[in-house]
Amino acid sequence: MLISLTVGKVDAGVAVLLTEDKRLVTPDNHPSHSERHESGSAILTSTPRKIEFPSILLPTDISCGSIVDINVSRNYAAENSAETAFANLQRTILHTFGLHTPKPPVLRCRNATQTSVVLEWDPIDLATAELRSLILYRNGSKAGAIPKPLEMQSTKISGLAVDTEYVFHLVLRTSAGTFSSERLHVRTHKMTELSGITITPGVMPAALRESLQKTAERIGAKVIDAVRIDTTHFVCTEGRGQAWERAVEMNVPVVVPDWVKGCEREGRIVGVRGYYLNADPRLRQVGAGHQPQQQQ
């Protein structure tokens, strides 16, 4: 659509274009000069006789009285391009943020003893969210925040009561919301339950190590090669080697193989004081009347 308009006034940045009646309406004599409507780049007053138009879009040689032709048409190609770009943006946002959300932690018990439990969980799945915190709760109360939750996947809780049930759960807080694991019920072992013993063997004669393995199998204990968070006792005859250093660093009790045999003989957990390396064997009290120490 082609429109011919007369330039009525040219100011810095704005030109006043008039319709065919050539009547210039100023703010002083306009019947409703305070009402304006925006349409595209042109600003229309409440009367159709005056149009304020950006002068930068007009030829540079115009002056008052010049007649300009303005061709107005709908740009379907630009509309389609804008609609396509907007739809693509919506799909990108949906697939980036809308389809995947953080998953609740999956909490498990790796091992339990008379006075401790080792909990583990799957790697934290944050999707596209940001991590706020990962907190462990025990019996409904906050037990503590997990340090480096994107790296750590296990923790050990010590100082628990013998033969007592505890309820644990993890709470993951992210920028996309809060997610809680299922409640995990764990009961610590009785003093006569030996399956929670997890042994890491150190330096000892081969025959003694073979005997240790058989004894552990008979009492239901586990033997693992490396010192881990769930290692309850480090068994050796000499205090040397990287594994021994690791056990000392982690405050894992370092005992001689006779401690395992003592547990088998007594049918219960026995105190470790008399079974430390270089400990006096006379401290190894045995018998039904002895109350063993609950050291794990």
TrEMBL record:
One of its GO terms (molecular function) is protein dimerization activity. One of its GO terms (cellular component) is exomer complex. Gene3D superfamilies: 6.20.120.50, BRCT domain (3.40.50.10190), Immunoglobulins (2.60.40.10). InterPro entries: BRCT_dom (IPR001357), BRCT_dom_sf (IPR036420), Chs5_N (IPR031673), CHS_Export/Cell_Fusion_Reg (IPR052827), Fn3_2 (IPR031669), FN3_dom (IPR003961), FN3_sf (IPR036116), Ig-like_fold (IPR013783). Residues 101-195 form the Fibronectin type-III domain. SMART domains: BRCT (SM00292), FN3 (SM00060). Residues 189-277 form the BRCT domain. It comes from the Eukaryota. CDD domains: BRCT_CHS5_like, FN3. One of its GO terms (biological process) is Golgi to plasma membrane transport. PANTHER family: CHITIN BIOSYNTHESIS PROTEIN CHS5. This is BRCT domain-containing protein. It comes from Lineolata rhizophorae.
